[in-house]
Amino acid sequence: MKKLINDPRQVVREMLEGIVALHPGLALLAEYDVVLRSDTPGPAQRKVAVISGGGAGHEPAHAGYVGRGMLHAAVSGDVFTSPSVDAVLAAIHAVAGPAGALLVVKNYTGDRLNFGLAAELARAGGIPTEIVVVADDVALRDTVPDERRRGIAGTVMIHKIVGALAEAGEDLQRVAAAGRAAAAVTGTMGVALGACTIPAAGTPGFSLGADEIELGLGIHGEAGIARQKIAPADAITDRLLDTILADRGYAAGTPVALLVNNLGGTTTMELAVVARRALARLRERGLVVGRAWAGTLLSALEMPGCSLSVMALDDARLALLDEPTQAPAWAGPGIVPTSATIVSAGEPPPESEAVVSADALGATVRHAALAAAVALEAAEPLLTELDSRAGDGDLGISMRRAADAIRASCAASHSADAASVLALLAGALRRAIGGSSGPFYAVGLLRAARQLTREAESDLKSWSAAFSAGVAAVSELGGAKGGDRTMLDALLPAAEALAAAARRDLTASAAWAEAAEAARIGAEATAGMKPRLGRASYLGDRALGAPDGGAVAVSVWLGAIADRSASRVE
Questions:
Q1: Which CATH number applies to 362-567?
Q2: Structure pTM?
Q3: Which molecular function terms from Gene Ontology are attached (predicted)?
């Protein structure tokens, strides 16, 4: 497993040095891996100090939550290893005074032992010290007693609540009581799509099949309570939330806060999909979502997956969550609308240019387009593979969307003339396909349709002129030319072959067959071309060896048109 580190034995210290170097409000103890507020006053002026911590590997927890309004100090152990008693005690002495210290501890044996002994030593030294243990992992509800559940991502919200109270000057007993009450109404459950790798180990902590997920795991790479086949995101989200709600027993109408936490290797896209469903599911269950956050809040190194945390709110907790903080990793106000705001763009304006010709070949064009749609749909895996080698891998799904748009357009269109059908297809593809393919196909079809309106007859020469006009439009829009390793390397030979066939007075079916063959040969030739435009151009010689996906797509649909005997255009 590749990681951007120097020495696994120094990675935690170097990480903390980097965090402190980036944030002027933080400081690092020279002797221990303890991050604290740089504005810590003398002991006599200190309010209740809130301290948390645990093993490294959960970033931005815990150092990212040090700052006014949250933690006063965070103690880090090695990766997934509890910090030592001496390190915790050093943190207490560094930030606590007569007002005392509150230790927020996730319910793992090592953390409880080391933080617990440090608290006892601090009390013996005259510093009042209380502990709030967070045990929010509802996945273990049928496995262990409540007091043995793990503490996971819900801990972040506990940090915020007790930190805000301490900042307001409340006494130690009040701060501790509020933390324990909040922890008691918080539930969390996670899902992993893969394992993480501890830097010193170099291998994943467990293995999953290509289609497997792990439910109810902890935050140290340990296995969960169940393994199953991957399911749609909505189904996974529902299972996590339903387990939390069944365990916590929130009554209908209860205000809640939601945390959608990235375990480390999950994209923002996936988190948003999960958050969308989580908000909807909570509301379906009769709960009122007062605040919600999504992001990387308490991770497990690079583990792909997420956890959901739900906390019951009252007015006091809501107010504390809303208090300002200078902690660099806090995710912001978390205010969400009562429902997603989705508005209509309205009816699209009518097309600005009429493209009606005098022929009666609309049905023929629709049949040819439908044949092309079938071929593009079948070629989706091939096009995805080719585009993944030199692009972003979306060509296959784009052409699948093109096929769907063609079918819908042909079903809705009853135009008798070819130009009108081409113009409607241009609009359908423009709206259906993202990226570059949509504009290219739309401009080519529009230009071809306009050219047909200028032709006196609907013969092969007029179609050749329209095809050439469309190819020229694609070249003008994208700035590409032959030899640049683009779709034009199939389109240009096809246009030339069609024009040559028209000059030789071939039948339409023979002419389209020659055009399709020229496109196929042109597409294959791109395998030896160095790309000059598009994403593939960033790869240089590394793109050589496989044909360009866009050129192959052209050869696919042209071949389908040529193969259809009913597509004769005369």
A1: 1.25.40.340
A2: 0.77
A3: kinase activity
